[in-house]
Amino acid sequence: MKYILLILLTLLLGAGPVIAADDEDEVDFLALASLMLRDGNIDRAVVALDQYDTAAEEADLVRYYTLRGMAHMRRNELEPARDAFMQAVDSGEAEALVFVYLAQVNYQLEDYRAAIEALDRAGVVIERVPSVYHMKAQAYWLLEEPVMALATLDQAAQIFPEDLSFVRRKVFYLVDLGFFKEAVEQGKVYLTASEGSVEDYVALGSALRASGELDEAARFLEEAQLLFPNSPEVKKVLAHVYIEREEMSAAADLLYQAALLQPELLSEAAELYRRSGQTFRALTLNSQLIDQPEKYRQRLAIYLQLGNFEQAAAMEIPLRRVGMMEDEDLRYAIAYSLFKIGEFDEAELHLAQLTRPDQFRKAAELRSAIQDCLEDSWKCL
Fold first, then answer.
1. Per-residue pLDDT reduced to its tens digit, 87-120
2. Of residues 195, 194, 175, the one with CA closest to residue 183
3. HSE (CB half, 13 Å, CA atoms) of 235?
4. Predicted TM-score of the model (pTM)
5. Distance CA 54, CA 365 (A)
């Protein structure tokens, strides 16, 4: 016993290895390393493993390499961990847990095929472990083998009928695959049997929208809004449903509510108010934008929609200040505004710099209009 205590004390103090003088009291370094790993003392576990005689005839190499692999895992040393677990497998009859560790390391190394093979070699012992099926399904998914991924989830759902996480994952896979109607069907099964998170409702609402079921999507997401009143994500998806139903005012109101939670949505809310004809409200929100280029671009569009051409033409100065006058769409808008207030020469200076084919054609049409005004000013009243 005194020799065991001496070894423990030496390891805890970080001193060099101490070997018992009496063979009958020789320290079990593998047991000591296992104890250190359980206690989270990884460095001390490695010190104990370094004392183990792997060349001894009775050496338990499977356990030795397993413990070394675990130590490397705890240090996030993935390549050495994989090598150690592979040596454990090659050294004898490894337990199922070794294959699970090997699968986890391979998965983190993005060697998904090897992760699946390791799980397959673990045998029937892990068939009642839910996390194994999640790892396997995701590995197939990342290998772009969706059929096998879905089949793995279906198998798991049969084995663990009370565990709805497999149905949930399947819903997200179906959405990504574009199988929206089936995703909705599976999603409703999941939400009926569980409380569901905001992400679940957003995914299912998005699937309904993508499948073209806009009315059902709206009803579903309106219910989600009641459940998650502080979720900007629900509001954003519902707003886009309203946009597709051409309900711009309702969409604008929703995005404005979302912008109170996520200020970066303010620009989009202002744009929707502009598109819905509520230009003064759009202008109010626009004044709150921090992103100067986006603010000036949108403000120019609002002034044009309001017919405030003098203010629109004056936007040339701030646009030039933020380096946006190289944008030919904006340059044409300024030229058009100058034309509307009778500044034909100034308008021509901008038109002369348009080179894009579509803008070049529009410039030709505007020059024709300028010529008409010069010949018969009453046409421009």
1. 998 888 888 888 999 999 999 999 999 999 999 9
2. 175
3. 21
4. 0.64
5. 88
